[in-house]
Amino acid sequence: PFDSQSDDSLAQGRKDPALVPNPLAPLPSCCMPERGWLRERLGLTDGPLLMYLGTLSPRKQPGMLARAGAALARPDVQLVFAGKLLNSEVSRLKREAKSAHLESGEFILTGYVTDPDLIQLYSRCQLYVLPSWHEGFGLPALEAMACGAPVVGARSSSLVEVIDNDSALFDPFSTADMAQAIARALSEPTFRQALVDHGTRQAR
Fold this sequence. Notes:
By secondary structure, the protein is α/β, with parallel strands linked by helices. 43% of the residues lie in helices and 12% in strands. The protein has helices spanning 7-13, 37-42, 62-71, 87-99, 115-124, 139-146, 159-163, 175-187, 189-203, and strands at residues 49-53, 78-82, 107-111, 127-130, 151-154, 169-170. It has a six-stranded parallel β-sheet with strand order 3-2-1-4-5-6, sandwiched between helices. α7 links the parallel β5 and β6 (169-170).
């Protein structure tokens, strides 16, 4: 039994650990849907696009993202909230957007999106933001990074490990800190490219 053996005897009988390769291959290059039709369907402009994906759950803080987006005071920026919509949470988010003085063109709810649409949104956005104060894993952040999107997220739970980039993390309970992280990513091309480069490596 294990508890009857000393550390020395375990060390003597132990073999070098085997390296098990990652069973998930890197994303293959694929045929992307033509750009333009999704843009027309959602009413996207040529301005910067901030993207959120996920259920509109309070723990994911979409309302805080709406307030942070409004704090930018940039009417050219559009916030796209993609994912499953629950009526109660849609109403809550619309109230948040209204109180933050977001105009209809700055605030888009897509509902459920198919995988091809999702890939196009990830690839089209200037910044993907995940403001959750708790995530079991944070798969959307990893998906966005795999699609080449710059990503910023809350400094909380698993996102610290998934994003693994302190300069891309913000205080999950501070709208001002989130707005500052977004503003920096939008205004500094070098920083935004650094987010892309790090995210691509992290996703792989």
